[in-house]
Write a structure and sequence with these properties.
The chain is mainly α. The protein folds into 3 domains: 5-75; 79-259, no CATH class; 283-430, no CATH class. It is 62% helix and 4% strand. It is built from 22 helices and 7 strands. A 3-stranded mixed sheet has the order 2-1-3, with no helix packed on it. A two-stranded antiparallel sheet has the order 4-5. Residues 1-6, 23-64, 66-74 and 411-418 have low confidence and may be disordered. It comes from Hypothenemus hampei (Coffee berry borer).
Length: 432
């Protein structure tokens, strides 16, 4: 048997120790000989061997550790990939898909519904999607809720839909123009599928499979298909619910900007309605505290800090009026314009000047073209005015609103292990 690593290291140390014991035992039989010099040689030799083997062993250990860390870094899944895998409840031909209901739950719930296993779809199930999926002119803010589990959404479409949720109205045109590669103000199915090329190309580049400089336009879509281990990347030609809805059962319809904008508006409205109804329980309003919980639910505040915000709000709201869905919707549209708001407020932040209610109200009007109600502004200030002087603590407000806008994705990706466990526990306590 060949010994390596720690076994070889221990065996050689034992040899040195045995030689030292033998030498000392011989020395005790010759009391008049001074063994100091020889002992020092053996001991010194032992420490040299010890040092060499420690160096070799730990160098190899750290090298192996570094290698494993690099390998883990290469295959490490992003927070969005992990979330898609957790919520995707169906698969077809080795590729995972979300249903419309899965998607809605993934953006408003912390965990997916309990299930024994994923449902495996057949070719007939895929063919039936053409009859189930409504055409684009029948789209509504209830599209995903009406389809429930009668549809499929790929991972790249999931990323597209997530980006829709955070787009301001002004960004709809930019998004459309990115798909409209020939500039004719209409997007066909092949242009829309460029998104598949982009994500598969990025996946390959991240793993060193292809050059980042390789032109996407010259590569057919079929050659971009990837048989990855997770089942996230497109690996076959399937007409998903989104493709059928946009381009028809035969895939020969075009998508114009008005229909594209309407779809994005409907999706944003549907998700916000679902989130609002979670707290309203069928009533026309939610409480100011529930509104605060929605804003704070994606943050990683300590439990004491979280309670401090809610206590501060309850102390300052003397007469609860409630927040209507219209007020909630307008505020969330403002959050989609948060970058513009940040620019508008830059002169205040450079001067480290807190923001008054009038200044806040005016900045929101400039960025979104809509007015926030006085009661909503009062509620926001009651939540984020730290010292009660009627001025907004801007930096803290922006940081928390960014977490809300991105629904925690940017923060989740930063923490793992013990920190992730603590954050998960905090999130669970907030939901109670």
């Amino acid at each position: 048997m060949i010994l390596t690593g720690p076994s070889l290291f221990i065996r050689n140390i034992r040899k040195v120790n045995n030689h030292l014991i033998k030498f000392l035992s011989k020395s005790t039989r010759k009391p008049y000989n001074n063994p100091t010099s020889s002992i020092l040689k053996v001991v010194t030799g032992g420490f040299v061997i010890l040092g060499v083997y420690k160096s070799l062993y730990f160098t190899k250990a750290f090298a192996a550790q570094g290698k494993s860390e690099n390998e883990a870094k290469i295959v490490k899944l992003t927070s969005r990939e992990k979330r898609f895998i957790r919520f995707a409840s169906v698969e077809y031909d080795g590729q995972l898909y979300m249903t419309p209901q899965d998607f809605l739950e993934s953006v408003v719930e912390a965990d997916p519904r309990p299930r024994l296993k994923r449902k495996t779809l057949s070719g007939n199930d895929i063919d039936r999607l053409k009859d189930i999926t409504p055409p684009l002119n029948q789209g509504s803010p209830h599209l995903f809720r009406s389809l429930r589990d009668k549809g499929i959404i790929s991972f790249t479409e999931y990323l597209f839909l997530l980006s829709v949720l955070t787009k301001p109205q002004s960004g709809f045109r930019i998004a459309f123009n990115m798909f409209d590669t020939d500039g004719n103000q209409r997007v066909d199915k092949n242009e829309f599928l460029v998104m598949e090329k982009i994500f598969s190309h990025a996946w390959k580049g991240k793993r060193g499979i292809t050059s980042e400089a390789e032109p996407l336009e010259s590569t057919p879509l079929q050659e971009q298909y990837i048989n990855d281990e997770q089942g996230l990347q497109r690996r076959h030609i399937v007409n998903t619910t989104l493709l059928i809805h946009f381009f028809g059962p035969k895939g020969n319809n075009d998508l114009n900007f008005d229909n594209f904008r309407r779809f994005m508006t409907h999706l944003q409205t549907e998700v916000l309605e679902l989130e609002f109804s979670e707290f309203s329980k069928g009533l026309p309003t939610i409480s100011e505290v529930d509104f605060a919980k929605i804003l704070l639910r994606y943050t990683y505040l300590d439990t004491d800090e979280y309670d401090m915000y809610l206590d501060r709000l309850m102390d300052r709201i003397k007469e609860a009026q409630g927040i209507t869905f219209e007020e909630f919707y307008v505020f969330c549209q403002f959050l989609n314009n948060l970058e513009d708001f940040t620019i508008a407020m830059r002169m205040y932040t450079l001067a480290d000047h807190p923001i008054s209610k009038d200044e806040f109200h005016r900045a929101v009007k400039i960025c979104t073209g809509t007015n926030l109600s006085s009661h909503l502004v009062h509620t926001v200030f009651a939540l984020f005015d730290v010292d009660g002087d009627g001025l907004l603590s801007y930096r803290e407000f922006i940081a928390i609103m960014k977490d809300r806008l991105h629904r925690g994705f940017k923060t989740y990706a930063k923490n793992e292990g013990w920190q992730a466990f603590k954050n998960c526990l905090k999130q669970e306590m907030k939901s109670q």
